[in-house]
């Protein structure tokens, strides 16, 4: 058992667990009792690998970004999750969970989505497998991510606006959880990140860990060694980061860097930098770090990127942060937008704004010339063109 | 004897009302409690509003958002409830979400409840295994009954485990749904009420979710000790104000 993997009770150190109403217990318990066994079967693994290869387009390339490397005087690789079918790493998880849902005999799929990437990835696999799909999305996010809403509808999903609270990801998650409470038997809830009650953080990490497994093999091929010096990813809930970090966490000489969105700055009220502004508490059934007031009311986060404005982080990341195993950096809207533009101009890759946050760390961190850095290029920027366009005035 | 157990020992079906503290106006909390008690309510659940009430439906969530905007907080609620025992002697239960309790400090929360004269606590998202391991002794020290929930999906074995954790009543969720739905109970719900009643648990049973009038009250209390009404009460309070409280309670009898 590694220091950073989940305990039998679902905890990463002090974080995790399943703080859920009794109403959700049967749903979560069914999953907890079955997920490891199902994922472990040859049948599941064969189908999962085959779909990842032929449908998602894996393995994704590990690309040496020479121009960026030259500028920052270090060796920069991009793990091109943006080239996955549907445009982000999210589909690794939804392919896995839809197979799990089928194995459990579920007919109806629900999901929450922030930027819409997870919603699209869920609608996609539901279309593929012929299952009913309902996606909860904050009313505000529906406005700012219109192309993804259209994609979900085209794929046959029903998009339900969440109109409570801040009308963003956390509220969409609340609505999805309520739906699940109301449909305990026939419905599987595909959570899109490494958040929520146990076993979700572990299950999603396992399904996303294909990213780090591929990086290891590709590193060996390109660099003659499996381990890079640093793995770097943006963290909202933290699924792309968990996928990249998974197989490197136990190698203490691999630096782990999580990049959070500080929105308009951590000294303003408009931020989503959980490791700086958060305290220990419970959100969506998990004990973790979250942004809250002294009373424990969950604060409405802000980031220019819809995928990062979640008021918590997954319990694994809270554990990496608290133990000092992971280093967390926060990046403002403006820094992320500039980094997105730089990646576009220098490498010809327009990243999702979430992803762009990771590429802004050079302002704050220094690397040696012979360091090998692997960035998770987690998503592409198509969905964000409108935001980029407005920001830069194109 | 704890006031909850005294109430349960009576030979009558108990009317329990849930309301959101600090709603509709911040300072309405004690007025609502007094009016409920005067109207003959048997048990009151004082809802500590939470930003993300997962187990509640839209009516309670909306009232919670309003209460929070009004300035309701854990400290404010405990302030408002100072001296409530001078005028109200029916059981009072605080219902909220565990993060609020955790941030206040679980022990401090229990102490504050004891000092006020609170009789029990309902925390839907405090799982029974964690309650038993970390907090059961603390609740007992402060004379607070822990009220666990069960649903139609809860297995018999788990119901027996849950039954051992408390010694007042079990909150029986009428259907596997968040609060505020349903109209009258069908055969399936009725047979569930009877099935659990036939288990002869140590705890009494109170049914919540989906009760809105004398008809559904009678149905849900036929095999149990009484009912908990939340969403419907808040709807009435929203529409008819304080003056609507007494007529609503009387309409249930």
Automatic annotation (TrEMBL), chain A:
The protein's required cofactors: pyridoxal 5'-phosphate
GO molecular function: tryptophan synthase activity
Residues annotated as domain Tryptophan synthase beta chain-like PALP: 57-378
Keyword Amino-acid biosynthesis: yes
PROSITE patterns: TRP_SYNTHASE_BETA
Keywords assigned by UniProt, alphabetized: Amino-acid biosynthesis, Aromatic amino acid biosynthesis, Lyase, Pyridoxal phosphate, Tryptophan biosynthesis
Superkingdom assignment: Bacteria
Pathway: Amino-acid biosynthesis; L-tryptophan biosynthesis; L-tryptophan from chorismate: step 5/5
EC number in record: 4.2.1.20
Positions carrying N6-(pyridoxal phosphate)lysine: 90
Lyase recorded as keyword: yes
InterPro entries reported in the protein's UniProt record: Trp_synth_b_CS, Trp_synth_beta, Trp_synth_beta/beta-like, TrpB-like_PALP, TrpB-like_PALP_sf
Reactions mediated catalytically: (1S,2R)-1-C-(indol-3-yl)glycerol 3-phosphate + L-serine = D-glyceraldehyde 3-phosphate + L-tryptophan + H2O
GO cellular component: cytoplasm
Stored Pfam families: PALP (PF00291)
Summary of the function given for this chain in its UniProt record: The beta subunit is responsible for the synthesis of L-tryptophan from indole and L-serine.
Entry similarity comment: Belongs to the TrpB family.
Assembly and binders: Tetramer of two alpha and two beta chains.
Protein name as catalogued: Tryptophan synthase beta chain
Classification lineage: Bacteria, Pseudomonadati, Bacteroidota, Flavobacteriia, Flavobacteriales
From TrEMBL, chain B:
Reaction(s) the record says it catalyses: (1S,2R)-1-C-(indol-3-yl)glycerol 3-phosphate + L-serine = D-glyceraldehyde 3-phosphate + L-tryptophan + H2O
Pfam families: Trp_syntA
Keywords from the named record: Amino-acid biosynthesis, Aromatic amino acid biosynthesis, Lyase, Tryptophan biosynthesis
EC assignment: 4.2.1.20
Gene Ontology CC terms: cytosol
Biological pathway: Amino-acid biosynthesis; L-tryptophan biosynthesis; L-tryptophan from chorismate: step 5/5
Single GO MF annotation: tryptophan synthase activity
Top-rank lineage group of the source organism: Bacteria
Broad EC category: lyase
Active-site residues (renumbered): 45, 56
Family statement: Belongs to the TrpA family.
Function: The alpha subunit is responsible for the aldol cleavage of indoleglycerol phosphate to indole and glyceraldehyde 3-phosphate.
Subunit structure: Tetramer of two alpha and two beta chains.
The protein's name in its UniProt record: Tryptophan synthase alpha chain
Lineage: Bacteria, Pseudomonadati, Bacteroidota, Flavobacteriia, Flavobacteriales
């Amino acid at each position: 058992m590694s220091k950073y993997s989940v305990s039998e009770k679902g905890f990463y150190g002090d974080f995790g667990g399943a703080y859920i109403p009794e109403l959700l217990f049967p749903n979560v318990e069914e999953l907890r009792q079955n997920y490891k066994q199902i994922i472990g079967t040859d049948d599941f693994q064969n189908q999962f690998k085959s779909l990842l290869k032929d449908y998602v387009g894996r393995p994704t390339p590990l690309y040496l970004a020479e121009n960026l490397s030259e500028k920052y005087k270090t060796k920069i690789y991009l793990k091109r999750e943006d080239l996955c079918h549907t445009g982000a790493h999210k589909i690794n998880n939804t392919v896995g969970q839809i197979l799990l849902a089928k194995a459990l005999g579920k007919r109806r799929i629900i999901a929450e989505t922030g930027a819409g990437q997870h919603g699209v990835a869920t609608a996609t696999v539901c279309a593929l497998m012929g299952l009913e799909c309902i996606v909860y999305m904050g009313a505000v996010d529906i406005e700012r991510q219109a192309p993804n809403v259209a994609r979900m509808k085209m794929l046959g999903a029903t998009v339900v606006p969440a109109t409570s609270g801040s009308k963003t990801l956390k509220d969409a998650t609340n609505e999805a959880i309520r739906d699940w409470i109301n449909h305990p038997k026939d419905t599987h809830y595909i959570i899109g990140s490494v958040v929520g009650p146990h076993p979700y953080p572990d299950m999603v990490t396992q399904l996303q860990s294909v990213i780090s497994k591929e990086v290891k093999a590709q590193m060996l091929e390109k660099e003659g060694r499996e381990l890079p010096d640093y793995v770097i990813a943006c963290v909202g809930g933290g699924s792309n980061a968990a996928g990249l970090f998974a197989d490197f966490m136990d190698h203490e000489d691999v630096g782990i860097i999580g990049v959070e969105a500080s929105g308009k700055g951590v000294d303003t009220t408009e931020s989503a930098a959980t490791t700086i502004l958060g305290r220990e508490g419970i959100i969506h059934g998990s004990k973790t770090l979250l942004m809250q007031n002294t009373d424990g009311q969950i604060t409405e986060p802000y980031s220019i990127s819809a995928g990062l404005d979640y008021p918590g982080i997954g319990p694994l990341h809270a554990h990496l942060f608290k133990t000092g195993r992971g280093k967390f950096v926060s990046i403002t809207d403006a820094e992320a937008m500039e980094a997105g533009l730089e990646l576009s101009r220098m490498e010809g890759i327009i990243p999702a704004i979430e992803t762009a946050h990771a590429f802004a760390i050079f302002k704050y961190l220094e690397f040696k010339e012979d360091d090998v850095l692997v960035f998770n290029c987690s998503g592409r920027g198509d969905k964000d063109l409108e935001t980029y366009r407005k920001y830069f005035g194109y | 004897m704890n006031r909850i157990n005294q109430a349960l020992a009576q030979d009558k079906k108990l009317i329990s009302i849930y309301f959101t503290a600090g709603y509709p106006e911040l300072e309405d909390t004690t007025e609502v409690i007094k009016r409920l008690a005067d109207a003959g309510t048997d048990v009151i659940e004082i809802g500590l509003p939470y930003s993300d009430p997962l187990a509640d439906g839209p009516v309670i969530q909306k009232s919670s958002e309003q209460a929070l905007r009004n300035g309701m907080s854990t400290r404010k609620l405990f302030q408002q409830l100072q001296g409530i025992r001078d005028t109200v002697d029916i059981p009072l239960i605080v219902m909220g979400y565990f993060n609020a309790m955790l941030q206040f400090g679980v022990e401090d929360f229990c102490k504050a409840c004891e000092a006020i004269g609170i009789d029990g606590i309902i925390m839907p998202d405090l799982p029974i295994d964690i309650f038993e391991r970390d907090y059961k002794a603390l609740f007992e020290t402060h004379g607070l009954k822990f009220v666990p929930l069960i649903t139609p999906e809860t297995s018999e074995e788990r119901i027996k485990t849950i039954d051992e954790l408390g010694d007042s009543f079990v909150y029986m969720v009428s259907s596997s749904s968040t609060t505020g739905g349903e109209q009258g109970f069908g055969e399936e719900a009725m047979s569930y009420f009877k099935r659990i009643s036939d288990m002869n648990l140590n705890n009494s049973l109170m049914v919540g979710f989906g009760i809105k009038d004398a008809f559904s009250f009678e149905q849900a209390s036929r095999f149990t000790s009484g009912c908990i009404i939340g969403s419907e009460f808040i709807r009435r309070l929203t529409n008819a104000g304080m003056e609507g409280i007494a007529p609503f309670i009387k309409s249930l009898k």
